[in-house]
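Posting this for the archive.
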Amino acid sequence: MDCHRATYGLGLAVFVGSFALAAACNARQQALPNMQLPVANDLPLSSSSGDVWTTFAYDYRRTGFNRNVTDLTKSNVAELKVRWKKNLGDKIYASPVTYAGNLIVATEGAWGGNPGSLVYDLNAADGRVLWKYAIPGRVKSTPAIDPDAGLVIVGDQATQPYAFALRLLDGSLVWQTHVRGRITASPVVAGGVVYVGVAGGDPPSCTQGGISAITESTGEVLWTWSVDPNPRKGGSVWGAIGFDGANLIFGTGNTCEKPITTANGAVSLKLNGEPAWSMVAVKDSHVDSDTGSGVMIFKEHAHFMNKNGRFYSVNKETGSIAWKDDLNPTSHVHNWSGGFATPTTDGTTIVEGSGFYKDAGPGDGEFCPLDTANPSEVQTGFHSELHGMTLGGDVIWTRTMQNRIVGYVALTGGMGFAGLNKEFVALDLTTGKTLWKHPAADYIAASMVLVPSGIYAADEAGNVYAFGLPSR
């Protein structure tokens, strides 16, 4: 069973439409609009020129840490208030991204009864819709903004999936490119190339998955690397791709044949598509032993979580295991319950969600029961845990919650921001204690964004929130 396919791959849409405005200039030549507007409710907006959170978990190393948020501290975080709130009418699972006053949010598309997803550009100052673009399939992966090209890159999970490049200025389509498999991993954009991770699947589909490299200016596919080189044998890249400036490092899922060395672990690719190394987290596995998490790179190590419940730190140059920590010992073969959250770090503490643990209630401990009607990552009879660890993997605190974190914890100023249960919270990274919280209308799958102008978040009820400090 493939959890991501079981809970995320239903009800794909076929409607295609665009609400985007026409554009007459090349995206690389366009200047970003001035979106500095006054804000009501006595919550002033600081300059959005420093707002740079353009990809999943802040940067392509996926650290989730923004040191540029200097006004927010442990001493004043409890004063955070809602600056604005806007409902987009559909569930939101992908995390927002932002640049220079543009807040990009993608709705999920299918669970809300809509024929497809919508990509919105909201004014970060007041939540006003600047533009929107219709995507035919479901969007669960976080878009990426390339400020140099003035583009927003987003992918869908339709039956005929595409990667899309939209102009940040007005949302008009620059190109759309068909890829093989569902786009689930947040892309990397570097050197004029878009690197997209795609997922295949378990039997009976067994579509090849891997990495596709796409020319950013034209949408032409340069090369494709597959987890399994044999057609119709599956293999997937589920989580966000890490990039250290030289190599792409990512987790890999199971295939539909005998175990191979590029599945159920992690792989590092050179930028020409040649493997630098691969490692197997679950050896000789014939079951669903995916690495579902994204890869976080810090100094010489790459870090990720596998469904087997173990957290791995490997040498980013060789793939050799530096250390590993069994964060979820209840997870075992044929009954995986480990997590697929992406770890983040501020250089002192690593934060990671480790999956489901059985309570006294009903349930058999499956990683993702197929009867789930809504992928809210909440299961009756189970709880989940969030861990704070040292850089060597020693657990220093644990928080228990009902929902399972599927994204990342955003970090700044010794604090971690995440959606726990039906609340947005700020945690002390030293102790794990709550410093601030605000209720949400539903559970929270999208991860939070921390920039100088404020904090941005979304819940599964389709609400987008902007938080800020009151004026002094």
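The first strand starts at residue 52 and ends at 53. The longest helix spans residues 3-8.
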